[in-house]
């Protein structure tokens, strides 16, 4: 017979819910201010906790940022990769990834600031490591789809795969930065299809010239 207190399961669930709420609050707050200036006091206030209570769920700020980075990594790759996996044709999968990624950022506009802020830090802390690994996985997925597209005859065989992967990520980043500069993050999803159309034009297989 278990000797575990009856309230322990409810307390555990409450802890997880508070942790989740805190992580989501950080993501939201990053859309309102520079992540580097975000204090634990501000975060605690956002979720209705004292700083002492916040540190019961996250021992220190580094652990909190590590958890936030882990959440971003899991959510981004799951949503974006699953969008790609719904398509057999590589070019369609790349477009689905692109649109899913932009949609994710549109729903969570604080994430670009958060990721860039971590990447700019001089040390290699856990949060920065998670983000770098996430970007590496993302790039690997793009390269894999580009290679698959060549095999399927959907992407021109002579393209520079490495450059195409850089340009793919750069197109998303440029679109996001432009929206941040203009203060119109809500326009991201409207612009994304046009940007991808321009990108995809660079790797589409050209028909043979009948005059050659």
UniProtKB/TrEMBL annotation:
Top-level taxon in the UniProt lineage: Bacteria
DNA-binding residue intervals: 39-58
Keywords: DNA-binding, Transcription, Transcription regulation
UniProt entry tagged with the keyword Lyase: no
PANTHER family: HTH-TYPE TRANSCRIPTIONAL REGULATOR ACRR, HTH-TYPE TRANSCRIPTIONAL REGULATOR RUTR
Listed SUPFAM superfamilies: Homeodomain-like (SSF46689), Tetracyclin repressor-like, C-terminal domain (SSF48498)
Protein source organism: Marinobacter albus
Protein name, per record: TetR/AcrR family transcriptional regulator
InterPro entries hit by this protein: Homeodomain-like_sf, HTH-type_TetR-like_transc_reg, HTH_TetR, Tet_transcr_reg_TetR-rel_C_sf
UniProt entry tagged with the keyword Glycoprotein: no
Domain HTH tetR-type: 16-76
